[in-house]
Amino acid sequence: MRVIEGAGEWVAPADGTSSRYEEHLRVPDMSLGTYRIPAGGTDGQNPHTEDEVYVVTAGRARLVTPGGEAPVGPGSVVFVPAGEEHRFVDVTEDLAVLVFFGPAEVVRGQAAT
After folding, report:
1. Residue range 68-96: average pLDDT?
2. Span 94-111, average pLDDT
3. Residue 18 pLDDT grade (very low, low, confident, very high; cuts 50, 70, 90)
4. What gap in Å lies between CA 78 and CA 61, rounded to an integer?
5. What domains sit in the chain, N to C, each tagged with a CATH number?
6. Helix (H) or strand (E) holding 36
7. 7, 25, 38, 75: least buried by Cβ within 10 Å?
8. Distance between CA atoms of 90 and 42, rounded to whole angstroms?
9. In contact, 80 and 73? CB cutoff 8 Å
10. How far apart are CA 98 and CA 53, in angstroms?
C-alpha cells in the first residue's frame, strides 16, 4: 500500500506557466498524476498513446474532443481513449485533475519503467 499525499490538490504553477503536470506514481501498468491549469490558462497537451481517466477534483472547464464536449467540475470522471485529440478549454476556475494513464504514460519517447 502507498498513500499518495497531495494528489488532486490545487497548487498554482510556481513558474507562471499556464499548466503543470506532476506525476505521483508510476508502475508498468499505470501511472497517476495531477494536471493543473489556472483559471484563464491554456491546455497545451497532445494526444497520448495510453488510455486516460480524468477525475476532476477542483475547478471548472470544458473538455473538448472531435466527438463532442462536456462541462467538467469537481466529481466529473471522464475516459479518453488512447490517441484521441482532447483539450480543456474555458477554464473558469483553477482546475486540478487526477490523471490515470493505462499503461503507464510513455514520456518523451521512452518506455515506461
Report:
1. 97
2. 82
3. confident
4. 13
5. 20-102 (2.60.120.10)
6. strand 30-37
7. 75
8. 8
9. no
10. 8
Q: Which residues pair with 58 in a beta bridge?
A: 96
Name which residue leads in pLDDT, 63 or 105. Answer: 63
Please report the pLDDT score of residue 106 as a whole number. Answer: 82
- Give the whole-angstrom CA distance, residue 55 versus residue 34: 9
**Placement of cell 464536449 in the chain:** 69
* DSSP string covering 51-99: EEEEEEEEEEEEEEETTEEEEE-TT-EEEE-TT---EEEEEEEEEEEEE
CA of residue 31 relative to chain centroid, distance:
11
**Terminal-residue alpha carbon distance, the chain:** 19
The pTM (predicted TM-score) of the whole model is: 0.88
